[in-house]
């Protein structure tokens, strides 16, 4: 595939798309694609099986790569949700009239062409397509070789729906899963307006360091739960188990439990549900002593320097003992990635201190970090979780993949 010609075609499609942008048309395409997911589920799963067969089941990416009828149904439901949401395109963010009579409006507009670089996550192909189309953007998809068969089947189905609806198929294109294609995309300044990487810390760092196009980082998720001196035991136990074991391969999964030293006697109770999932725990000395004899010995290890600040993406978790909320905040400041952090406490003062002191995109009280998700936030779907602070932060959905322009209406005024 000649990447430059693809870039040119997508840029041209972007201008064509915006000139005739219609919410009704877009919604019809999204609903048609959601229906096509169900009708073609066997075809998608057959191609996904080829990718799965080439990957070690013990690879943390395996779960992200795997599609099931239930997951496809959820993807289709998310796409219908996106179709039901109002488009941000054309929304007036603010309006005012200057003393000279000029009327100023700040209006939402699409970025234009968005490049997405992602690893073994075929669901991203559908999510990015739906969000970009709804927000008036065209997308250049650069998936990893691990999901080559799945992504190709998905983009073929999307193109079939676009053709049926009379839409230029270049509004969504899949690039080859080669390093060369990645390099070309990172430097396609004349054609691409924004790059969003989704994947490992190594991928995100590489994109940030090499791209000559603006990048919104969807950073790694090193997530913590702090169980406070006044934490509710059942709330904490459920939050830890849900955050750690619901899906270990996603970025909102728990990596480190921080516990107040006065509650170490409750640590075996908090960790008990993790035994069913064979979660391996790396505990500091006080936590190890509290768990010793109460947690399976083969699943319990002493923490090392690398246990903290690691995004495990696996059935593994670190435990750190602290003496105060301030100590917990300092630990998160040192080892967190700015993704999602939670405090379990019935003390409102400690909760407010945690909210104010923790610098992360999503900060919870008495809830698991597993809720950090665009669909859970009522955004329909997400294009990624931004851990940076410029433009977008947290789950990025429709509004976050638009920018704005100033529209100035005059009546012949001139500047003195």
Question: Could you explain how this protein is built, in words?
Answer:
With 416 residues, the chain is α/β, with parallel strands linked by helices. 39% of the residues lie in helices and 20% in strands. It has 14 helices and 16 strands. A seven-stranded parallel sheet has the order 10-9-11-8-7-12-13, with helices on both faces. A hairpin with a 5-residue loop joins β1 and β2. α2 runs antiparallel to α5 (69-84), α5 packs parallel to α6 and α6 (122-134) runs parallel beside α7. The longest helix has 17 residues, at 3-19. The protein is globular, with a radius of gyration of 23 Å. The protein starts with a helix and ends in a 7-residue tail after the last strand.
In short:
By secondary structure, the chain is of the alpha/beta class.
Provide keyphrases for this structure:
416 residues; alpha/beta; seven-stranded parallel β-sheet; four-stranded parallel β-sheet; 14 helices
Approximately what portion of the residues adopt beta-strand conformation? 15-25%
Order of helices and strands: HHHHHEEEHEHEHEHEHEHEHEEHEHEEEE
- Give the % helix: 25-40%
Task: Label the overall shape.
Answer: globular
Q: What is the strand arrangement across the widest sheet?
A: 10-9-11-8-7-12-13
Q: Determine Rg (CA atoms, Å).
A: 23 Å
Structural class: alpha/beta
Count of distinct strands: 16
């Amino acid at each position: 595939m000649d990447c430059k010609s693809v870039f040119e075609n997508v840029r041209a499609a972007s201008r064509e798309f915006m000139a005739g942008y219609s919410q009704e048309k877009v919604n019809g395409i999204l609903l048609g694609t959601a229906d096509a997911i169900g009708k073609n589920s066997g075809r998608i799963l057959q191609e996904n099986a080829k990718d799965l067969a080439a990957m070690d089941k013990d690879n943390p990416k395996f779960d992200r790569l795997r599609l099931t009828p239930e997951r496809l149904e959820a993807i289709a439901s998310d796409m219908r949700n996106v179709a039901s949401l109002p488009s941000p395109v054309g929304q007036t963010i603010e309006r005012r009239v200057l003393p000279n009579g000029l009327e100023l409006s700040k209006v939402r507009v699409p970025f234009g062409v968005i490049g997405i670089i992602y690893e073994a996550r075929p669901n991203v192909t559908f999510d990015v397509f739906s969000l970009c189309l709804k927000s008036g953007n065209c997308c250049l998809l650069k998936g990893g070789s691990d999901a080559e068969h799945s992504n190709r089947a998905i983009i073929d189905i999307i193109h079939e729906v676009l053709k049926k609806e009379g839409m230029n198929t270049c509004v969504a294109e899949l690039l080859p899963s080669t390093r060369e294609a990645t390099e070309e995309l990172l430097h396609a300044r004349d054609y691409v307006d924004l790059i969003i990487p989704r994947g490992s810390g190594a991928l995100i760092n590489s994109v940030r360091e090499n791209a000559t196009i603006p990048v919104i980082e969807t950073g790694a998720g090193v997530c913590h739960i702090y169980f406070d001196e006044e934490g509710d035991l059942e709330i904490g136990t459920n939050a830890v188990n849900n955050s750690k074991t619901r899906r270990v391969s996603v970025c909102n999964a728990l990596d480190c439990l921080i516990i107040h030293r006065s509650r170490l006697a409750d640590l075996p109770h908090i960790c008990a549900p993790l035994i069913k999932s064979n979660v391996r725990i790396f505990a500091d000395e006080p936590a190890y002593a509290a768990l010793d004899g109460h947690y399976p010995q083969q699943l319990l290890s002493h923490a090392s320097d690398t246990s903290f600040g690691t995004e495990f993406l696996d059935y593994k978790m670190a435990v750190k003992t602290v003496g105060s909320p301030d100590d917990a905040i300092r630990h998160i400041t040192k080892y967190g990635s700015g993704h999602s952090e939670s405090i379990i406490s019935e003390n409102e003062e400690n909760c407010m201190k945690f909210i104010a002191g923790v610098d992360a995109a999503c900060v919870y009280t008495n809830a698991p970090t597993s809720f950090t998700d665009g669909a859970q936030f009522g955004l329909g779907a997400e294009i990624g979780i931004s851990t940076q602070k410029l433009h977008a932060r947290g789950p990025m959905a429709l509004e976050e993949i638009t920018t704005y322009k100033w529209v100035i209406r005059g009546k012949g005024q001139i500047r003195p």
